[in-house]
Amino acid sequence: MKNSLLESPFDRRNFLKKSAIAGTGFMIAPSGSLFGATSANNRLNIALIGAYGRAKAHYGTLHKENVVAICDVSRENLAFAAKEFPKAKIYEDWRKCLDHPGLDSVLCCTPDHHHAFISNWALNRDLHVYMEKPIAITVNEARIVRETYLKKKHKLATQVGMQRHAFNNFSRLREMIHDGAIGELKDVHVWGNRQIPKPGYLPAAGTPPDGLNYDLWLGPSPDHPYNPGYFTGRPGANCLQWNMYWDFGIGQMGDMGSHTMDLVWNVIDAKLPDSVKVASPEAFNPDVTPVNLTSTYMFPKNDWREKIRVTWYQGGAMPKSPSKWLDLNKIGHGAMFKGDKGFVIADFSSRMLYPSGKDIDLTYFKPRTKDEITPPLGNFQEQWTRACKNGQPTETACNFEYSANMIETMCLGLAAFRAGVPLDYDGGRGQFSNNAAANQYLTKPYRKGWTFDG
Ligand SMILES: NC(=O)c1ccc[n+]([C@@H]2O[C@H](COP(=O)([O-])OP(=O)(O)OC[C@H]3O[C@@H](n4cnc5c(N)ncnc54)[C@H](O)[C@@H]3O)[C@@H](O)[C@H]2O)c1
Description:
This protein has eleven helices and 15 strands. Residues 1-34 have low confidence and may be disordered. By secondary structure, the chain is an alpha/beta fold. The protein folds into two domains: 4-165 and 379-404, NAD(P)-binding Rossmann-like Domain (Rossmann fold), CATH 3.40.50.720; 167-196 and 252-375 and 407-441, Dihydrodipicolinate Reductase, domain 2 (2-Layer Sandwich). α6 runs antiparallel to α11. It binds nicotinamide-adenine-dinucleotide (NAD).
């Protein structure tokens, strides 16, 4: 029997063709339809949750819609956002904000430990959702959100904030590998070199400033004492003050890893791996996610490729270069695809083809003509606002099925790191099949009173 969690009727190539057509104009849904924007001028009624910091990057898109509610746990940050959206009603608690009357959709830029909760609550209320990355910080969270989304995907548009996906290089990479530039795909390596080592949660220091609701900042997370150090980053990069702690994030996997693994995910058409193993020079730290980690996933074959191995390297771990001429360390965040006829090496905006083998002549590879290449995706945020309105809600590049599968895979690496042994994974059941004790690492503790099913 087909498992609903793993269904993927979303044909990405088809989507890419169709989205170019959608980009030429809106298909306005009949009034009262779930797809249309509910305001008279075909603008979405949006709640912005987590209203400052990363949210600033979305203000341009939001100004084209109706921001009717803004929510933040910091009064100072709320005041900043209220200047941008003076007509919006102000909330401190996202659980109340999601019940704002007349909402169509939510755009969320809170810290990561709220993402799966807010996503699920919003989907439960039939709201379209744009969620900053990562969509989840455990395997279990990813599965909960995906399951809710799959039940509603024909009426709700979702997008996770992996906006580099709109770079044309993503499509060119996919085309090269699918069209055989490196022969049969065998092996994929993907890495990020950011390192933010921390010894443990910050010690108690002072009291939260007037105007910061620290209890709501913690939200579903287990209690940790206040320390101003969690709030000292520049706007849009404050996530680097908290995202390495297990209760607030997943370190580099959720940080740059969300973008870099997307380079690979967009090519390989994978769902979930059937095994995972890790290597790290670090011992498990109950407070902080590992800096230096290598996690290796085996994915079953699909309709265009054999089974493949994908290896993620972070914090200084790196794959071996295929040539002494190529220094992969010069690429901070990159991917390398290995086929039986050579390699493609890429970062977010560029790529190089390195044919290898003594009889390799490239006669087997015909680059596409201009007419055959995938059209540009356009503005990534507006791909979502368009999908909220045009009756084609699944036509976003990084919807909650695509993105939850990707982050579930990454989180399996962290579970294997904690278990300390190679693990076989049954993606249908969401359980390790060779080690029952390791299943405890698929989830994490939460504070009493916080539920996914609100
Ligand atoms: N897509 C990208 O390239 C990109 C870049 C930077 C950050 N991000 C993501 O954006 C998110 C926010 O990052 P940031 O650096 O702006 O973080 P931040 O710590 O500055 O928080 C962002 C905003 O959320 C508010 N907030 C915190 N807890 C809240 C809650 N419970 N309810 C409502 N508001 C709350 C904060 O007061 C702040 O205004 C993270 O998930 C991060 O991964 C994505």
